[in-house]
Amino acid sequence: MDAFGKVVDYGLRGDRLAVKFLFKPGSTQFASERSIRAPYGSWLETIAERTSAKQGCLEVLGHTSATGLPAVNDRRSGLRADYIKDRLESEQGSLRGRLVATGEGSREMIVGTGRDDASDSLDRRVELKVMQCSGSGSST
């Protein structure tokens, strides 16, 4: 976790954290493969701790694959982002007002097969982007 903490610190100094949380197709639950989701709890704890310590602000970006209606994908991606935002805030209450959840739907796919299998699992993700904190201390 020390090495992961260094990755988080590096990302907080830059534009984007090099972390992606993957989700089940059509769901707001993490990917079912234990090997994928196993470190997520520790990752969230470390990200929350380091972001809070640096008084940073993050945009939590939810994404979906291309399968399904665009309106449904927009909603689902927003719910995925909200889920990660809520988890981070529950780890560090000081992050409330410094995180913004945004749903991107399927507009920023990485793979784009639309098969909703393992081949396009990277499209069903949440990413974290470093953003400027507003002057009032709230980014919502």
SSE layout:
Blueprint: H1 2-13, E1 16-22, H2 34-37, H3 40-53, E2 57-62, H4 70-91, E3 99-103, E4 125-131
Parallel strand pairs: 2-3
Antiparallel strand pairs: 1-4, 2-4
Helix pairs in contact: 1-3, 3-4
Structure, described:
It is a single chain. The protein is α+β, with helices and mostly antiparallel strands. 37% of the residues lie in helices and 18% in strands. The chain has 4 helices and 4 strands; from the N terminus they run αβααβαββ. It has a 4-stranded mixed sheet. α4 (70-91) links the parallel β2 (57-62) and β3 (99-103). α1 (2-13) crosses α3 (40-53) and α3 (40-53) packs across α4 (70-91). The chain is globular and about 40 Å long. The mean pLDDT is 92.
Quick tags:
140 residues; alpha+beta; 4-stranded mixed β-sheet; 4 strands; 18% strand
Write a concise synopsis of the structure shown.
The chain has 140 residues and is an alpha+beta fold. Helix content is 37%, strand content 18%.
Class from secondary-structure proportions: alpha+beta
Element-by-element helix/strand order = HEHHEHEE
What is the terminal-to-terminal distance?
30 Å
Number of strands: 4
The rough form would be described as globular
What is the helical fraction, as a range of percent?
25-40%
Q: Unreliable runs, pLDDT <50, ≥5 residues?
A: none
Radius of gyration equals: 15 Å
Q: In DSSP terms, counting alpha (H) and pi (I) runs of 4 or more, how many helices?
A: 4
Q: What percent strand?
A: 15-25%
Query: Averaging pLDDT over every residue, what do you get?
Result: 92
Largest sheet: 4 strands, mixed
Q: Order of strands side by side in the largest beta sheet?
A: 1-4-2-3
